[in-house]
Amino acid sequence: MGGVQEEEFCAYHPSWDDPSCAHNLAVWVCGVDDLRLLPYKVSHQLGCNDVRVEVKAVGICGSDVHYVKKLRNSRVAMKEPMVLGHESAGVICEVGSSVTNLKVGDRVALEAGIACGCCTLCKEGRYNLCRDVRFFGSPPTNGSLAKEVVHPASLCHKIPDCLTFEEGAMCEPLSVGVHACRRAKIGPGKRVLILGSGPIGLVVLLVAKAFGATTIYLTDIDEKRLTVAIALGADGTLRVSSDMNDLGDEIVKIQKMVGSVVDVTFDCVGVTKTMSTALKATGSGGKVCLVGMGQDQMILPLTAAAAREVDVLGIFRFGLTKEEIEAGFKTSAVAGDAIKVMFTI
């Protein structure tokens, strides 16, 4: 799918002409490959349950790159300039009148999605699926790549002293890995295959290791990414191609590499070839978890997979309990800076 047509995009935002917000500079996407450092207006008066955060570190996600290159990410298109960023950490510099769990000076990681809190899904704890969620850096909501942002206190999680701000910002993508591994019920004895060794594939590797997976293997088209996977503890890797004609041979190579049945496959790419690989490579009674969203539509060999009772799971962002957030912090301390581009502000 192509980018947004030029006539559909309004290349102006009222924040830029407001002198009251001149101190709060942010990185705006103003057009295709057009990034600018411009003022960003946030509320001068805090809500009683909000906090003001001085942002210290922001990670760059693949979705950010899509907005810069195409003004869209999958089916979500920009209609006006937008501040990037949703993987962020910083310091509390002001608290609302009803906030009791945070104070000025606290170091926090920001949870990027603000759900309604009232719908059935929110009440069930699946707030990541809320239809009315507002998510940093996803149209029409501006992101966190700014000097300061205002955010609900309930979505600001204290960072342990052992973590840097950069590691704190890593907790957002790591939370995706935690959510995926929870959905797939990863634990001791599970043999895992991860398709795609980009940032999300690598955080799934880290989380699966933390959850006790017995063996973890990764594939990718890029040898450099596979080298990082080995450094982070993968049991083995396989370089593959993007050509569907190579699928059969690659399935044989995967089976030889793993040496046993794959219990769970995570597709961290999300295109026809990788999902076809996942469905064929996963053992009978196993699970395929679709993490990446590279294509809106795919033609897949579902009938054969269904006959082997291979379950297909989807995930969208994350919806975490307090315990799962703490697990993300623990894993972040291991991740380091090898797999994510990070802005330090």
TrEMBL record:
A single GO molecular function term of this UniProt record: zinc ion binding
Does the record bear Metal-binding in its keywords? Answer: yes
**Does the entry feature the keyword RNA-binding, yes or no?**
no
Q: Cofactor(s) for this protein?
A: Zn(2+)
Alphabetized, the UniProt keywords read: Metal-binding, NAD, Oxidoreductase, Zinc
InterPro entries to which the protein is assigned, alphabetical: ADH-like_C (IPR013149), ADH-like_N (IPR013154), ADH_Zn_CS (IPR002328), ER (IPR020843), GroES-like_sf (IPR011032), NAD(P)-bd_dom_sf (IPR036291), SDH-like (IPR045306)
Q: Gene3D superfamilies from the xrefs?
A: Medium-chain alcohol dehydrogenases, catalytic domain, NAD(P)-binding Rossmann-like Domain
Per UniProt, residues of the Enoyl reductase (ER) domain are 31-345
Q: Which PANTHER family match?
A: SORBITOL DEHYDROGENASE
Q: Which family does it belong to?
A: Belongs to the zinc-containing alcohol dehydrogenase family.
Q: What is this protein called?
A: Enoyl reductase (ER) domain-containing protein
Species of the source: Adiantum capillus-veneris (Maidenhair fern)
